[in-house]
Amino acid sequence: MTPSSVTRPASRPRPADEPRSVARSALRLRTFFAERAPTRIYLTYAVLWVLALQGTLAVLAPESDWRLGGSLLAEIATVYLALLFIRVVDEQKDLEYDRQYNPDRPLPRGAIDVVELRAAMVLIVVAELALTGWRSPLLAGWLLLDLGYICFLVQLERWSARVRDRIFVNLLVSYPVQALLSVHIWLSFRQATGTGPVPDAVFGALLCACVFLHYEFARKTGARVVPGASLYSNVVGRRGSTALTVGFALGAVGLALALVRPWELHGAVALAGWLPLSALGFVWGGGERFASLRTPTWPPGPAMGFLAWCYLGVFITALVVARPGFGG
């Protein structure tokens, strides 16, 4: 998940011979994360992703003793830090592209340097091991696999022009990062509840994939071809990319409704079950603005709104249906 870039005033690059201060680097990193990984977006995404996926698993396994407690909070923190790690790696991986198309971003303009970003990566890994190791060696190992795969992608793009330059191939090899995190959330649920069959995990992962891919295609769908830009619409055209954007949203909502089949329920449970359907309002709003050519790309606000509201709707449904306990 990558928030839209915001133009910032140019910062003075740090000369190579300037002494490196821990306090100064910490301040630069804090500024970097505030700009490129705002807490209100990244933490909200982590919270809703974990709650929605674990809520889905709880609904599918009614015998589970799903609880809103310490293990859940630890998993949210784990996913949040993984998202920060992804952001840090992506900034380094996309440096050459950003120098041409996004020179105002922190790394190209010299507001942060690669050494500081790699130091942040090390600190994140240490924190992740602390968050997962006490819960389960499997959780720690699976997370290291995901973080290692993220780093491998940097080398893969350097080795393969096909992966680097073909956006659909790039998506094919990079989406497993998100999928591996979904599996981690499932493993955390299993570790905490003692249940969670594989078919349930597949259903939950598909729902999360559709939600994420709606956002992914939306933010890279343009009204016209932009040579050299990373846009799906450059490959399949405006209509094709729009169809993928809308199609994944419909798939996500369809799976969310199939989770509890609200048409078979009554009262508050039925009302909660229909809630994810209202997320399509964001798709309509974004599509209307884009179709009227008021924005050069599909507006990111409605795409983020769909992601957040769909996940929130699934979680509220899980609260009503699964009725989790608290603590533990």
From TrEMBL:
Keywords: Membrane, Transmembrane, Transmembrane helix. InterPro entries: UbiA_sf. It comes from the Bacteria. The chain crosses the membrane at residues 42-62, 68-89, 110-131, 137-156, 168-189, 201-218, 239-259, 265-285, 306-326. Signal peptide: none annotated. This is Prenyltransferase. It comes from Streptomyces lydicus.
